[in-house]
Amino acid sequence: MDGIAAHGAVKPRFQIATPGDDAAIRRLLRDNPMRGSVSVSFEREPSYFNGVNIAGGRDQTIVVREGEKLVCMGRCIRREAWLNGRPFDVGYMAELRLDAAARGRFGIIRDGFHFFHEQERSSPADFYFTSIAADNERARRLLESGARGLPQYSFLGELDTLLIAVPRSLPKTTPRIERMKDEHIEEVLILLSKHGQKFSLATRWTRARLQSLSSHGVSDLFVMKEGGEIVACGGLWDQRSFRQTVICGYSRALNLARPIINWAGRLFGGVQLPPVGATLPQVFLSPFMVGRSLPEFIAELFRYAAGAEFITVALPRWHEATSAIRRSFTTRTWRSRLYRVSWPGDNPLELNGAVLADVALL
Questions:
Q1: Which tens digits make up the pLDDT trace of 176-218?
Q2: What is the pTM of this model?
Q3: Distance between CA 232 and CA 312 in Å, rounded?
């Protein structure tokens, strides 16, 4: 019987996603949140395909169907990024979701990885990586297990995504930043390249890639100068028109503490925990460069973050800028772990030094 597995279940079909899969993909993302102390769903409304191929990326999504039901998906985003100070073709593996109805079906994930690897075999990326929430123990147990048929997951480092609370009132000071003009672009690109070369996995920005962001929610890029030289730069990127982080629930302890946390936040201007079902009111700091002026630069950006409660930026857990931001602002942290994903025969390239991926592009 065609399409029926030996045990009687409908045989999974592995395919490259097309616009016809849009509604089913959005349902899968919406109904299968990432569990943790704060459970969130990373949604793609009103159209999944509005958020593909951004900033020079080349996206491919794999979907798995049983009959007419979409039960699993995964996405790979290929773009040029820095590895050990040199540009390479890097693939970020994202949005691995298994529907609750297929929970425990290891074979679907194993065969999905095999299907993806076969698709990439003729023209693979130089390096593949992914991120997993540090408190997503179920995913970590499976993917770190080295189970037969899965690619190898090699730990690279921890990334702290900082949600920086935007103050309700700002001091009346003379702005130290200005909107980037065309005359600034070459200097900004040099600074972004110098920054990227220090951190493997950082995006390699070009003029075309910077300018393309305007069609995806980056209204302005900003620069801060000292002595006539640019010492900090970055953009505020509101992605809520095509990509949303939705609060799906809190752990029991956090749910009990939430009224007190929110009361203190209202009283002292700190971080509040949004209600379940709310879209996180954030804008990303992206692209940006890490430097000693980063906290001052972020403080200047607050006046341009109207309509957002958080400015979100990701940094290595151990980096001095991460500590400086925590000292300077009220923050909450989403911690994730970065892994290399590899198969036998892959490029033997090994990373040296720090890793830093742009959370706005993950």
A1: 899 999 999 999 999 999 999 999 999 999 999 999 998 898 8
A2: 0.92
A3: 16
Cα atoms found within 13 Å of the Cα of residue 34, Cβ hemisphere only = 21
Residue 250's identity, in one-letter code, is: Y
Rounded Cα–Cα distance for residues 167 and 9 (Å): 55
List pLDDT tens digits, range 256-292: 888 888 888 777 766 788 899 999 999 999 999 888 8
Tens of pLDDT, residue by residue over 80-108, are 999 999 999 999 999 999 999 898 899 99
Residue 245 contacts residue 40 (beta carbons within 8 Å):
yes
Question: Cα(159)–Cα(105) distance, rounded to whole angstroms?
Answer: 29
Task: Name the residue type at position 263.
Answer: W
Helix runs in 121-184, H state only: 137-143
Among candidate residues 157, 153, 156, 123, the one with its CA nearest the CA of residue 140: 153
Residue limits of CATH 3.40.630.30 in the chain:
13-158+336-342, 163-335
pLDDT at residue 222 is higher than 50 = yes
8 A C-beta contact, residue 82 and residue 200: yes
Instruction: Fold for 163-335, please state it.
Output: Aminopeptidase (3.40.630)
CA of residue 297 relative to chain centroid, distance? 22
Question: What does CATH list as the number for 13-158+336-342?
Answer: 3.40.630.30
